[in-house]
Structure formats: C-alpha cells, structure tokens
Amino acid sequence: MGQSIVADLLSLIGQDVKLRRVASTNGGEYAGPCPVCGGRDRFRVWPNEDGGRFWCRGCGLKGDAIAYLRAVHGLDFRAACEMAGATDKLRDTGAPPVRRGKAKLGAPVRSLAPARPRLGPPSAVWQARAQAFVETSEQVLWSEAGRRALSWLRKRGLSDETIRTAHLGFHACERYEDRQAWGLQPKTDDEGREQRVWLPHGVVIPWYVGGQLWRVKIRRAQGDPKYAQPAGGTNALYNADALTPIRPAVIVEGEIDTLTVNQCAGDLVTAVATGSTGGARELRWIARLAACPLVLVAYDVDTDGQGDKAARFWVETLPNARRWRPEKHDANDMLQSGFDVRAWVAAGVDHYTPAAKPEEKPRVCNMLDGEAWREAFEERAAILESESGLPREEAEAIAERELRELYGPPEQDGMTR
After folding, report:
1. Contact yes or no for 63/106 (Cβ under 8 A)
2. Which range marks the domain in which residue 70 is found?
3. Who has the most CB within 10 Å: 128, 132, 289, 352?
4. C-alpha atoms less than 13 angstroms from C-alpha of 30 in its C-beta half-sphere
5. For position 95, what pLDDT does the model report?
6. 355 pLDDT band (50/70/90 cuts)?
7. Cα 205 to chain center, whole Å?
8. 109 in a domain, yes or no?
9. CA-to-CA distance for 153 and 160, rounded, in angstroms?
10. How many CA atoms lie within 13 A of 298 on its CB side?
11. Pairing of strands 29-34, 38-46
C-alpha cells in the first residue's frame, strides 16, 4: 500500500474505536470493540500482516483498509482506494484517480472529481423498520422512561425545540433483531452463528436526506464504541438538505455539534456532520458543499491532531473550504463551557469572506457579450448537472458564481460588468 491520507490501518480504525495491543502475533495484534456490532475485544487488527488486516469475531466483518472504509465509512471502491493510497488497484478500470490540491475561493469545481458510482439510501424495508424504531424512541424520550436522557441532552445546551426538530429519541434497553426484519440477507460468522441487528441502549439520532432515512446513530451512555448503528444503514452527510448556495457551511464530526452550531448561529451558517473524521467523502456530498460560498471545517481539536489531519482532506478537496478550529474540544464543549458559539462562527465567516471594496469601479470586460455570457452559463450548468449529479438549481448557482468571478454580473447591454 502506498502513501495514504491515513498512515496505516491501525490509525484509521483508531479514529473510530479504542484499540489495545494484546499479542505479538504476526507483528502485533490489537483488540477492541467492533465499530459495527460493538462488544469489548471481539474486533482484531493485525496492522503489519499483508499491509494490514482486521477481523470481527462477532459480525464477521473482515478485510483490509479498503474493505474497512467501504463497510464502516460508506465509501465506494474508488474513494476507498484513493483514501487508502491504493490507487494502483484502479489501473484496470481505465479511469484516472482523483487529483486533489489547494485552491482559492471562487475557483472552478469542474476538476474536483470525475463522476463515479454513488451510494444510495437503504432499502424500503430497512427504512420502514428504522423509521418505526426512531418514532418509538422519540416517544420514549419525552416520557418518564426517557427523563434522564432528556436531561442529558438539555445539560449539553440543546433546547427542547432543537431536540424535537432533530427527532432525537431514546432506546431504553438493548436488544437484537433478526436481519430479515430489516430487509437484510441472513449472515453467519466464522463459527456458524447467526448474526443479528444490534440496537443498544442510548440516545437515538436519525439521519434524513431527501425525505429518506439513510442512517440511525445511537449515542451510548457508556462503553466502546461510543456510537453504534443498526446494520444496513448508509453513510451520508448529516443535515445535508439544509445546505444552500447562499449560506456558508460548517463541517463538524458529530450530530450534537451540528445541532449546537445551528441552534446558536443557524441564520449565519448551515452546520453538517460527517459522522466521523473519514465520513461523507463521496461525490454527492462533496458537490453539495462545493456549492456553498464558504465551508468552515470545524473538526474536533484532539491531542493527537486527528481533527487537523482529517480537516486537511476537505481543505485540499474543496476550493471553498478553510480550517476553523473550535476554541475547546468541539462546538458543543464550547457551548457547555460558556463560550459564545455564535461569535466564534461569525468570526470564522468574517475572517474568510473577502471584504467588499465600494471604491472599486465596475469591471469592464469585452470577452463576452450578453448573449455569450448566457450561453456560457447554460453550458457550465449543464456540465455540472450531468457530471456531478447536482440538482439543476444547485448547478445553476455554482455556474453563475463562477462566471461572476471571471466576468462580473450580467448586464442588459452585455458589455459593462
């Protein structure tokens, strides 16, 4: 495996769960909870064997870094290969790898990434089962059984309106359900035991995109992993539907941070969550963020620098992205510690938004007349719509911004910009 965004399999998995060295087998064996099915030490990692291998004795998940990125972070094959630094595996496809590099605000996004297959929402059966689970959990949260969970959310600074709008819930007791009930194919582990869908005790956080339920996260009160999810969900971008071409975006890691920023400064920015430092690295989400005038990458401030390292992906991939570090560990820690989250957000937007210069005269550009400007606009919007899979409205917003950057706004006479 060549040079990669993640240094090795151990550091990649270590972003999601805590691992400890348990043996010297095959150059070192590490154990911890499975990021999919939980447990305590059922998940094993051998970072020095054949470029790095992992295996879960519970759910049977196994493979290399590419398999991990696809199964846990929801990346497609190409994106997983690129992140793992294994682009040599793409040579037989005839398609070039994505090129990433630093760019200035306002730079065209056409070269951001070539079109590639995209992941979609889970099956209708899965969504129906998950929706029933979410609705029941929401009812429990506002009952006596959910009193402590609701108090925990309020202590983190979230208002009742924020909690209700996000449809947060509470699952009071751990249980396992048949995979078939969730529309999933039966599976057994290496010992022939039937695998089931794990629903742990904790705060329930649904991920909706386009009116469909893509994912359900469960924030556990204790134990590793801190977050779990029913098998079969699809990685997405939390709160993606709220993104708009006229408002800056803030990328954070967790859903609670998203709700915090939107509660405090939702009229200034739209906060979204990737779910982990490696999540949402898929073209449809990249394209939506590229349509925003500015993207502040507010990943956690970690002692090991993981937040800064992961933020680099977005800064190098999106021409409109800039790193904006929280003043505490994360946005919600700031709120709980009494920091002015709204002022912090506003400072980031002001810092990276070029100041207007009223003394400047309108630009004069004879490169395009009015008709040519409109033709260029239509052509560019069509390219963005077809190659990036953007809705027409978003494609037109990006095309107009790019042309304004190059030639100024269109005028009736087509000459004075």
Report:
1. no
2. 9-93
3. 289
4. 20
5. 41
6. low
7. 15
8. no
9. 9
10. 35
11. antiparallel
pTM exceeding the 0.85 threshold for the entire prediction: no
Show the DSSP H helices in 319-358 as ranges. 331-336, 341-352
> What pLDDT digit, counting tens, does each position of 212-270 carry?
999 999 999 888 889 999 999 998 999 999 998 889 999 999 999 999 999 999 999 99
> Contact at 8 Å (CB) between 328 and 257?
no
β-strands 249-252, 38-46 pairing: unpaired
DSSP conformation letters of 363-400: PB--S--HHHHHHHHHHHHHHHHHHH---HHHHHHHHH
> Per the structure, how many domains does the chain have?
4
35 & 62 share domain? yes
Can you say whether the dihedral through the CA atoms of 207, 209, 212, 214 is positive or negative? negative
- Take residue 159 and report the two structure tokens written for it: 């208002």
In the prediction, which pLDDT does 5 show? 38
pLDDT at 212: 93
| Residue 307 covered by a domain | yes
Domain boundary among 77, 93, 109: 93
Separation CA 53–CA 45 (nearest Å): 6
